[in-house]
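REQUEST FORM: STRUCTURE PREDICTION
Request ID: SP-0412
Submitted by: Lab K.M.
Chain count: 1
Length (residues): 296
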Amino acid sequence: MPTYPERPISGQRIVITGATNGIGKEMARALARRGAALTLVARNETKARDTVTELAAEPGVVTAPEYVVADLAELSSIRSAAAEITARYPVIDTLLNNAGIHSFSAGVTADGYEVMAGTNHLGPFLLTHLLLDRVIASGTARIVVTASEAHRSAARLDLDTFADPVPHGAIGSEPIYGRSKLLNILFTEELARRLDGTGVTVNCFCPGIVASGLVRGSRLLTGTARAASRTPLVRTPRQGAEMGIRLVLDESLGTTSGEFFTSTPGLRFLPAVSARRDGALRQRLFDRSAELVGAH
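STATUS: Completed
RESULT:
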């Protein structure tokens, strides 16, 4: 990965989801080493405490990370966590929406939505909405979303039904997961448009194929991914984190917004999928998502 000019982030408040393992932990580690004031949003409190202890021992840490417990598959949990975060911090300098799942069997969230659409899109959508005033208060904040090149395999996007439960097995999970990642990108692009002029940038990225907990629903795939990470085919979590770290740190990206950055060589030359060229669709998706999570 080429070098780039880093902006100083020591003392800046950075809120990150999904930081107790995988690329999220590696992004948090890199930012903690640069003196950032981290807040981890995690579903598992034990893992959150352990991660805080681990990161607090890293060289360069100025202040020990903090954590807030939230389940992104439960809207009430997100609301409680957001209330706690806004009570703690008057300003959020960076929001990293990283947490996500790839479920190999059908499931629903606590609110009855398809589990990948709910966890990967609606949960981060609501969290961002609830924290947005604190983000805008920074004046030069960044929002970074972990998306994926898997969006190219997305199932058909119907705004009336995209969050509805649907039966599927391991093979059928891929287009549904891909659709949730397409939702991440469309959300990024539309939020960037709506925040134009506020000083807040919004970008998303694909970390590449990473040996991480994302495939923990399948022992076979988890083992395969770990073995493949010793080859050039699959990246380690540290490698997968590099692009996300850059989107937080790169000084030259201070005014870049609404972009999708890929870590997969060659794929940046492919044309954007048709949904990304439909501005009206992005606006309707944003409004529909707000309706589903009660963000008005």
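NOTES: The helical segments are 22-33, 45-56, 75-88, 115-136, 173-194, 219-228, 237-249, 279-293.
Reviewed by: T.R.
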